[in-house]
Amino acid sequence: MSKRKPYEERTDLEKIQSQWNKLSGLHAREEWSAAIVRAATAAEIAANFAIRKEFASRSTFDSKFIDNLLHWANGIAGKIDRLLIPLSVGEKHHKTVKKLKSVSQQINTKRNAIAHQGEFCNEGEAATSIQQSRQFIETLVQIYEPDFALKEKKR
Length: 155
What we know:
Layout: H1 12-28, H2 32-58, H3 63-73, H4 75-88, H5 94-117, H6 123-144
């Protein structure tokens, strides 16, 4: 019997770390494009986490409604533009969130080229995209969880 918690039962932070662990293995196997997609997925889950935190701090909406909004926002770009930036207006971290928009656009552009156009990437592109994703994730999550840091998978 597996001792691992099923993925669907994990918190957003646990899911982010799971994606990060998976991308580390893909990167080690030189599966650059797949590692980029996992990094972008982790970044999108970080956006979900931040949006959930924003709603929790100012509303009593139930999780199903918030999940529907996350689905409606459709991807990291929609989540940043349609939900997170508007939700953070007037908050001390609004400028930080707005600055992350350009990083999220770079992450999303590379991910979409792989997922929708079949682009293959090299090691340098993977390293850049993974670093951008790390910056996005840690900066965003640390607004709500100051001690958060992605952990590298032990080999």
